Amino acid sequence: MLRKLEVCCKIYSFDGYVNMEEERQKKNKTETLHELREAVQNNPQLLREPIIKNMVQMIEINVFRALPRPQPGVGGENDDETFHDPQYEHVSLIHDLFVNFLESQAFHPNTMKKYVDTSFITQLINLLNSHDEREREIVKTVLHRIYGKFLGLRGFIRKSINNIFLEFAYEDDSFNGVGELLEILGSIINGFAVPIKAEHKLFLSKVLIPLHKSRRYTSFQPHLSYCIVQFVEKESASTMLVVGSMLRVWPITNTAKEIMFLSEIEEILDVCEPHEFLNICEPLFQRLALCMKSQHFQVAERALYYWNNEYVVSLIEENIRMVMPIVFMSLYEAAKTHWSATIVMLVCNVLKTLMEMDQELFDNLAQLLMDDKNEPMDAQRTVLDAMNRAETMNNLNNPQSQMM
User: Fold this and answer.
1) Which of 31, 46, 330, 380 lies 20 to 30 Å (CA to CA) from residue 264?
2) How confident is the prediction for the chain on average, in pLDDT?
3) What is residue 79's predicted lDDT score, i.e. its pLDDT?
4) Which of these, 253, 336, 325, lies nearest to 296 by C-alpha position?
5) Three-class SS state of 381
6) Burial 297-313 (b: 16+ CB within 10 A, else e)
7) How many Å apart are CA 327 and CA 368, to the nearest integer?
8) Whole-Å CA distances, 348 to 30, 130, 132, 351
9) What are the tens digits of pLDDT across the range 351-369?
10) pTM of the predicted protein model
């Protein structure tokens, strides 16, 4: 086994032309890596101290390397083509071998801690900057296993992640593995004890929340949203901090990001306590009112879909006297002027829901609006006119329906 590990320590070039002998050696290395993995899985008794030492050395020689960068026009940040590292076949087998070792019966943290130390962790985390998403995915798995097995390294791993996020948020946002680190972090946050420690609250305010400002937010949004929701669920008092911060950096000129902000806030509202909702209600619905009348179809649609969420609607109903005056004018304008029949119909549904929640308030707001515009019309008529407008627009867009 020591001889096989020695064979796997040789590094081969995967760029350009290789001769037949080198091709044969590369194939031999691939087969040897498969054999080593099977040995770790089926013969854990082989994993004694000399083997472990040489195996870790072999892993370091192969995976801790200068990461290849995609050539211009081949899998770059803004390119459709995904970058594939030519060394990935060997690198993935070595990572897989390491994961199998970490999960084997022969694994003992006390034996391994002299080899898997802070230097090893630093180099491993740096691999998450790979342009090959396949490597980032397998490194994420390795780092997660190490976090679970090495209790003494947990603090260092969290601190290292913290430093990468700080640099990403405030200095240089070129690091590629933020999504993978957030995925690891999500499971770590899930294990936080309640009440949450002060250091974790500081991490939320100084590190996680500023990630919303990143121009690369859309690439890691689902993982960031999961972490934020975990915090809010465990510490309801953080709701105002999170939502208030997002409202202050709202992406007015980036509709794709704006839709993701709307989705993330709805996820936060799903775990929001009623008394915390009261604190964010006014500024939140001032922003939602603007989104609901947005001329961008998807933004308006996403904001109006809040009214399909039963829990959010129940929170609105409890605070209807605050919410309805904020959104009424925007809904009225959208019903009268929006170019999309679908949006007009969704607006009608929201107006009907508001009317059912508090008929008296709805009538009063409608009357104030009509007095201001000097148009005699009651509340019910407002909704009916909007519905008729939506049907007319649908008929214009679908001439066949008129023929039928």
Assistant:
1) 330
2) 89
3) 46
4) 253
5) helix
6) eebbbbbbebbeeeebe
7) 14
8) 64, 49, 47, 5
9) 999 999 999 999 888 888 7
10) 0.88
Contact (CB, 8 A) for 330 and 292 = yes
Q: Six-digit token pair at 253?
A: 């000129």
Cβ–Cβ < 8 Å for 87, 26: no
Task: Output the six-digit token pair for 286.
Answer: 């001032």
| Among the listed residues 153, 2, 158, 128, the one whose alpha carbon sits nearest the alpha carbon of residue 63 | 128
Please report, for residues 26, 30, 35, 56, the alpha-carbon distance to residue 10 in angstroms, rounded to integers and kept in the order given.
9, 12, 16, 14
DSSP state, 74? S
Distance between CA 316 and CA 331 in Å, rounded? 15
Angle at 71 between CA 66 and CA 74, to 5 degrees: 125
E strands in 291-384:
none
Task: Find the angle CA(235)-CA(322)-CA(260) to the nearest 5 degrees.
Answer: 55
Cα–Cα distances in angstroms (integers) from residue 376 to residues 20, 358, 372, 382, in the given order: 89, 21, 10, 10
Q: What is the largest CA-CA distance in the chain?
A: 93
Contact 203, 163 (CB under 8 A): no
Tokens of 309: 């969420």
Q: Token pair for residue 21?
A: 């002998």
Residues belonging to the chain: 404
Helix and strand numbers, DSSP H then E, in the chain: 21, 0
Structural contact between residues 97 and 138, judged by C-beta atoms closer than 8 angstroms: no
Which residues, other chains included, contact 272 with Cβ-Cβ below 8 Å and sequence gap of 6+? 232, 236, 239, 280, 315
Nearest to 204 by CA among 249, 236, 156: 236
- Name the token pair of 102: 């970490």
* Cα separation, 385 vs 337, whole angstroms: 12
* CB distance 331 to 365 below 8 Å: no
How many CB atoms are closer than 10 A to CB 69? 13
